[in-house]
Amino acid sequence: MAVLDNRETSASTTDLDLPRTDPTYTRRKFLQWGIYAIGGATAVAIGVPTALYFINPALKTSGEGNQAIIELGSLQDLANQTKPLTVAKPYKYLDGFKEEERNKQVFVRALVANASKDTDFQILDSTCTHAGCPVAYDPPNAPPAAKGKFYCPCHGSIYDINGKNLVVAPAPLAQYKPIIRDGKLVFDVFQQISAK
Amino acid sequence: MANRVYEWVDERTGIKPALDYVMYRRLPKSVNWFFTLGSASLTVFIIQAVSGAFLAMGYTPSTAPVNRPDGIISNEALESIRYTTGEGLASFGYWVRGFHHWGANMMVIVVVLHMLRVFFMGSYKYPRELTWFTGVFILILVLGFSFTGYLLPWDNRAYWATQVGVRIGGSAPVLGDSIANVLRGGPTLGAQTLTRFYALHVLLLPALIAGLIGVHLFLIIKIGISGMPKGKKKDEAPTELFESSSLNGKKSGKAFFPYIIFKDAVVSALVVALVVLATIFWPVESSNPVDANNPVSTVQTQKGLTIFEVNSSKELVTQKVNDKFEPIKAANGNTTYVTRDGKEFTNLTDNDVRTVQVQPQPEWYFLFLFQFLKYLPTEVNFGLFSISGEAIGGIIIPTILIGVLFFVPYLDRGKKRNPLNRPWTSIVMLAVLAGIVALTVVAITDLNKAQSVQAAPAPAAAAPTAGSDAGGAATAAPGGTATTAAAGGATAGDSAAGLKVFQANGCGGCHLNNGKVKGIGPVLANTTRDDAYIRNNLKNGKGAMPPYPQIQGADLDNLVAYIKNLK
């Protein structure tokens, strides 16, 4: 490389070892720091907005601005539904600029007979907290231990009727906040509540 | 700390001598502010690379339809951009888009200025011909970036400008159709074109330009910078091949770091500051979503100032009005209406008709070419064969100019570098520059005129039919212009019906005010052209005008009648 061959000639020009009182030394130092300052300011002007743009998704909480109400049924019909009722319904999800249809399956049940208040109901998400498979309530092919409970076909997770994890699964099933609206029981897919 | 890291790296790479050479090499003392344009170009390139990489994260190159909450059917490409960059200065994406948009404009300016500096100082002469060749390729690639990037928002403005651009490519003799098909990725401008342009813009062109910039920089460091040409009398060709290396030994000249690079840094910072300021003060906005059939919409009022905005297919485009589209009554009783494009119309009166036009408008630095095409005849006959005017103006002449530019080191072989000692070279370049500037100025003046015409009330305001059906209202425009039908009578077609064809095909987008006023296209009123000429141009297009082979039969007869009878 011819470039490398010039090392002897370049060496003589790299010197900043002039006496500090030499005007050339101070001029060089001034220019040197000027270059760093200008270069730094330029990089900041372009880099900071770009970096903020990149990390912007972390500044937003998930589901922010989203609302997806799913209707489960009339209050009358569900008032005495004390066994978990499986409901699968589509909802609209705004993924950035695009509205998508997604599906949600939940189990709803009345905690008391003649349930009438929102707190009388329990809505459990059907996604197993172990590996994300959909769980089923009291499926016919489940082992005896899962009788009358939620059972996951993938790795045999079992949850009790309140969604409390009994076998395999590391956490209870997610719960949604029951909302009563115009005589109907509904919930918002983006409003989860922590299990009791 | 930094020093220790550097030493650690140097021990394993031996990079220090090479870096020292680059940083402390001696350059001619005459290197001045003119010589900062190359590094400014490199700075802008870095802005483009960084902002482009991040913009790509938020962009979807798809034409798939998206229903917007405001009732407008848009597409994924445009909506992905609006989503990531659309919230003004509050969204960081807006900044990044601004950097990329204004950086692209700045890139063209700085690269062209850099080229002119090299040209007028004769810096392309021996031994720097190869540096010049790579530079011309870089210039072509920059224009390629501009052409491909302009389409990506997939809005009406981009779509129609690209239509014209592809059409110019398609006018090439012999290979024309193949070129157009290759550019479009198919017979029509659509989904294939968008992904094709996207891949070119973000993969192929960046790889090519990065490689060429690498070679360009290597040669500059290897050969050294030419420095200012000497005075007219002392002017001479460079004699030493490696001037800067030889300067090193002599300790004459200035070290690149910090003397030369300081000026580079100042000018680069200035350029970046301009890009940032433009981002802050000039919002980058897209036009309507691509509506391939309907480049034009019309604003109409009825008695009592009910305002409709209809497109050329007479569909109401303000069906689901959001606040922005509501007419605003001003204190003085005048009404302002903001169209779906954000264009404002003031002083609307009862029974008013205004055209909202999509300008098939390219970036400003391509305007000269559009303007030039307008002056050329449809066809030039060379006896044995004939070539279309747009092939001459859009392909042949630009190719010759680029070719001449490329081979300048071998066309101007004299030893002298001072522009005064190379009068012909300098005069030709000045003449070409003057032509480009003049054409650009005329084009911009025309565009401004077209816009002010739009904003003025239509002279013979049409009286839309009564009723709430805006579809009916749009077709009722003949009320104003049908008078022309009676005046003519020479042609078989029906002028009034021809006006409908005119409007339905968006002709008014370029031939303003139903063809009575010059826009992108010429005035059609009082034409002296014969039937055959008009029919041929409609069928095959001309210059920037796209072909409309779909207009046939009675529609064609009526349209020709309308144009011929237009006063």
Search tags:
heterodimer; A: 196 residues; alpha+beta; 4 helices; 26% helix; elongated; B: 567 residues; mainly alpha; 3-stranded antiparallel beta sheet; 22 helices; 13 strands
Q: Can you walk me through this structure?
A:
The complex is a heterodimer of chains A (196) and B (567). Chain A is an alpha+beta fold and 196 residues long. Chain A contains 4 helices and 12 strands; from the N terminus they run αααβαβββββββββββ. In chain A, strand 7 (158-159) and strand 8 form a beta hairpin. The longest helix of chain A has 37 residues, at 23-59. The model of chain A is unreliable at 1-15 (pLDDT under 50). By secondary structure, chain B is mainly alpha-helical. The A-B interface holds A 1-4, 6-7, 9-14, 28, 31-32, 34-35, 38-39, 41-42, 45-47, 49-50, 52-54, 56, 96-99 and B 14, 17-18, 20-26, 43, 47, 50-51, 54, 57, 66-67, 76, 79-80, 82-84, 91-93, 95-96, 99, 221-222, 245, 248-249, 251, 255, 257-259, 261-262, 265-266, 268-269, 272-273, 276.
Strand order within the widest beta sheet of chain B = 6-5-10
Mean pLDDT of chain B, to the nearest integer, reads 79
Radius of gyration of chain A: 32 Å
Largest sheet of chain A: 5 strands, antiparallel
Terminal CA distance of chain B: 81 Å
User: Structural class per helix/strand content of chain B?
Assistant: mainly alpha
Q: Which strand-content bin applies to the residues of chain A?
A: 25-35%
Task: Kindly report the greatest chain-chain contact and the residue count on each side.
Answer: A-B, 34 and 49 residues
Specify Rg of chain B, calculated over alpha carbons.
Answer: 28 Å
SS elements, strand count of chain B? 13
Number of helices of chain B: 22
Q: Summarize the main sheet of chain B.
A: 3 strands, antiparallel
Order of helices and strands of chain A: HHHEHEEEEEEEEEEE
Low-pLDDT residue intervals, each spanning 5 or more residues of chain B:
302-306, 312-331, 454-491
Helix/strand/pairing class of chain A, anyone?
alpha+beta
Overall geometric form of chain B: globular
